[in-house]
Design brief:
Layout (H helix, E strand, L loop, with lengths): L5 H15 L1 H21 L4 E9 L19 H8 L2 H11 L5 H6 L1 E4 L6 E8 L2 H54 L5 H29 L5 E5 L12 H26 L6 H7 L4 E4 L17 H16 L6 E6 L5 H14 L5 E5 L11 H6 L7 H5 L5 H4 L1 E2 L6 E4 L14 H13 L2 E5 L8 H7 L3 E7 L5 H13 L4 E7 L7 H5 L21 E5 L4 E5 L15 E3 L9
Parallel strand pairs: 5-12, 6-10, 6-11, 7-9, 7-10, 11-12
Antiparallel strand pairs: 1-3, 1-4, 2-3, 8-9, 13-14, 14-15
Helix pairs in contact: 2-8, 4-6, 6-7, 10-11
């Protein structure tokens, strides 16, 4: 079979996992969306308003290294001053609120646009009006605080210059008095005149500086864009929260899907059988190629080609002396019946003499003879009659009308009853068939329903497991392989089928064995020569021993079955 690259196998596995559990991811994503919407509705609304302030340079401004501009204003420092306690106290006074100024400062943020002397002061509040008022109040408080600081510095300079001027005036007066007493042309007079000239120059300079400071107008800055009432809240961000919730939900859904995939023991694909159950897959059928209960697959159809390849692989795996192949199922159902019948038909089409033995009693009495229905032979006599000694081997075998080289031994009445699968007569029958025929295909019950599969496998040369997806589980498959290993039967691999649906309405309308209520038949009742009676303490059956000729207008012959209720084994 064609090898699959590991990368593509892993990708197909994850894609298949998502396809199987898409509803988990969808539900989790929906829950994430709902959670995001719930969080959005539960979060308080926050409104933000901003005020732009142009900061003007004042006398005491000095720009330190690292400032935002090359001018004299250090905007980094000014941005920190906006949220300072002094500004917050002034803003609280302007807002006329009893809220703690430090709490108000927490709602303020400042942005400095690049290459400007502008501060953008933002304020957040729970209402649009509060956001507008808070932004304007902090901008106004900052400008007032800056103006007061600048005015205080200017006043301090004026006071200092005034003091120096008074001192110089006093000193100059003293020098003038001393000059009046000094003699003309004396050295003292010359020194005093020099001192008077220097003092007069200093006094004139300070007086000029004082006049400048006295006439200076303090302009700390101005509001160039006042706060506005915001139309929409800035928080919560509805789209962001819902998108985040969806992403978290999708991530959680993928994790849950992966966890479900890891914890799910059901086999869903042929890759699960190969990878997770560690078993080679001989053939895999899909819904288009899966056979039904009404006929075997045509050799040139899609399903027939699958069984032709299966036949070739089986023949390549067998030794020349190997002739008996047992087909069993990993779970209860009719998967082994379909695989065994179509494999036997594919072997017989090569010209080999093939005998198909039905040793699997169906789980339902509605269709009590699926093998007979598929191959177009009579339901009785069968294996149970042969093992009970009521018929010979030659009479139990029936030829399939369309494939003459295929002979069939149907299940008969109750092939699994009374331990017939462990009888010496079955061993002798298989030995006789081994000598007389080319290949023997045994349709065995599932390993999970009874020990007959293991008993039949011990008499066979090779075994094939029929795996019905979504019904078979990994423990079942592992247990089936272990049962076959213990009896020493080589397991060739698995044939994978999709989950089989029940019988179609057309099949139920004409079952191979019709059921009709009749009166109880005495165990000692005399049986006509045309019939073979199967008598048991729990059930009484009457089947026609062979084809019954019909006259025009006659009702079709039927078989009558009366069964006592029995407990169905747990799956």
């Amino acid at each position: 079979m064609e090898a699959t690259r590991p990368g593509s196998a892993d990708l197909s596995h994850y894609v298949g996992m998502f396809r199987r559990h898409w509803w988990v991811a969808l539900a989790a994503t929906g829950a994430g969306l709902a959670l995001g919407a719930a969080v959005t509705s539960a979060m308080p609304k926050v409104y933000e308003s901003s005020t732009s302030v142009l900061v003007s340079a004042v006398e005491q401004d000095t720009n330190q290294a690292g400032g935002r501009t090359k001018g004299s204003i250090n905007l980094d420092t000014e941005a920190q001053l906006v949220g300072s306690g002094a500004v917050a106290v002034r803003a609280a006074a302007l807002l006329r609120t009893s809220e703690n100024p430090l709490e108000l400062a927490h709602d303020v943020s400042v942005e400095v646009p690049a290459n400007t002397t502008v501060l953008v002061i933002r304020f957040e509040a729970d209402t649009p009006q509060k956001a507008q008022a808070g932004s304007h109040a902090f901008a106004e408080a900052y400008l007032r605080n800056r103006e007061q600081t600048a005015r205080s510095g200017l006043d301090s300079q004026i006071k200092s210059l005034s003091l120096k001027i008074r001192q110089l005036t006093t000193n100059l007066t003293s020098i003038n008095a001393r000059l009046a007493k000094a003699g003309a042309g004396s050295s003292e007079r010359s020194n005093l005149e020099s001192l008077r000239s220097n003092s007069q120059n200093q006094l004139n300079s300070m007086t000029g500086r004082l006049n400048e400071l006295t006439t200076t107008t303090v302009a700390a800055g101005s509001i160039i864009s006042d706060a506005r009432v915001p139309d929409e809240p800035t928080s919560p961000n509805t789209m962001l929260n819902i998108a985040a919730g969806a992403m978290l939900g999708l991530l959680a859904g993928l994790v849950l899907a992966f966890a479900r995939e890891r914890l799910d023991r059901r086999l869903r694909t042929a890759a699960d059988v190969r990878d997770r159950a560690r078993m080679p897959v001989l053939a895999a059928l899909d819904e288009r190629t899966t056979p039904h209960f009404d006929d075997v697959l045509q050799p040139y159809g899609p399903g027939g080609r699958v069984f032709n390849r299966l036949r070739n692989e089986v023949l390549a795996s067998l030794d020349p002396s190997d002739k008996i192949i047992v087909v069993t199922g990993a779970s209860r159902g009719s998967a082994s019946t379909l695989v065994a019948a179509n494999l036997a038909a594919a072997l017989a089409r090569t010209g080999s003499d093939v005998v198909l033995i039905g040793a699997h009693l169906p789980d339902s009495v509605v269709d009590a003879a699926p093998l007979a229905r598929m191959l177009g032979v009579s339901a009785v006599p069968g294996l149970s009659d042969l093992l009970a000694g009521r018929v010979t081997l030659n009479r139990a075998m029936q030829r399939m009308p369309r494939i003459p080289s295929l002979r069939v031994i149907t299940t008969g009445g109750a092939a699994t009853a009374a331990g017939l699968m462990q009888s010496q007569r079955l061993r002798d029958t298989l030995q006789a068939l081994r000598r007389q025929t080319g290949y023997v295909v045994i349709e065995a019950p599932s390993t999970s329903s009874s020990a007959d599969a293991q008993s039949l496998a011990s008499l066979a040369d090779a075994a094939i497991l029929a795996v019905e997806l979504r019904r078979s589980r990994r423990p079942m498959l592992t247990d089936a392989a272990e049962q076959l290993r213990r009896v020493g039967t080589p397991l060739l691999g698995a044939v994978v089928l999709p989950r089989l649906a029940g019988l179609r309405a057309s099949d139920l309308a004409a079952p191979a064995v019709a059921l009709s209520p009749v009166s109880a038949v005495s165990p000692l009742e005399k049986v006509s020569p045309d019939e073979t009676a199967i008598i048991d303490t729990e059930k009484t059956m009457r089947f026609p021993a062979g084809p019954v000729p019909r006259q025009s207008g006659d009702e079709p012959p039927t078989a009558v079955i009366e069964l006592t209720p029995a407990k169905k084994e747990d799956e």
